[in-house]
Amino acid sequence: MQQKTIIAAIALSTGLAISGGTFASDDNRITPDLVSIEVIHDGKPVVIKRGHDRDAKLPAIFQKTDRGCPPFCVQPMQAAPGVDTVGELEVLDYLHRMAQGETDLMLVDSRTPDWVMRGTIPGSVNIPWNKINTDSAGTFETPGEADTFVHIVADEFGANRDSKTGNWDFSEAKTLILFCNGIWCPQSTANLNTLLKIGYPAYKLKWYRGGMQDWVSVGLTTVTP
């Protein structure tokens, strides 16, 4: 059946809405009113929808329940004071807004590249936690690590740094939505805490706590590099 594009608004508990969805006769929607959304990933359009195999199971890498703590400890519901915790529909809303041209948003996959190779959320950018991680004193082991950190925060996240004082200005910085593998994964919270240490505003940081494990558990589209 030919699909028809409509402007769909889904009222969420947070007050967010998703629009520009695709409406059709479909028995596995994302919500009752939303079948799919189109996003841009690595410069190419990707349609995010739910799978249609009623016998589908979680990928093997997300079936494990005992991973060992530390480091794979259950994360709190709130990563840090002032940082909002979001779910799948909020992430989809951010992705739709990004696809519609909002350049002040970024969905950040905080996992290391070996995990990203197994699949990620379309529209996300991989900023591994260990690329911007600092020690407890907020310092780096080598000048190269510091340079990488400054490049990512300035060029990727849109913050400005005074070359003389080293102070950061986040007035034009992007709102970041960070995720990793799930509620047992500390990689996105590591990124969040590093950014908060340098003064990144908490209201510009969002945390998708469920991460990849929740994303694939509801059959949403993933992509591999």
Give a short synopsis of this structure.
The chain has helices spanning 88-99, 113-116, 129-132, 143-156, 187-197, 211-217, and strands at 4-5, 22-23, 36-41, 44-49, 84-86, 105-109, 124-126, 160-161, 168-169, 175-179, 205-208. The chain is of the alpha/beta class. It is globular, with a radius of gyration of 18 Å.
How would you characterize the overall build of this protein?
This protein is an alpha/beta fold. It has a domain at 75-217: Rhodanese-like domain (Oxidized Rhodanese, domain 1). The chain is 23% helix and 18% strand. It contains 6 helices and 11 strands. The chain starts with a strand and ends in an 8-residue tail after the last helix.
Would you spell out the secondary-structure blueprint of this structure?
Layout: E1 4-5, E2 22-23, E3 36-41, E4 44-49, E5 84-86, H1 88-99, E6 105-109, H2 113-116, E7 124-126, H3 129-132, H4 143-156, E8 160-161, E9 168-169, E10 175-179, H5 187-197, E11 205-208, H6 211-217
Parallel strand pairs: 5-11, 6-7, 6-10, 10-11
Antiparallel strand pairs: 1-2, 3-4, 8-9
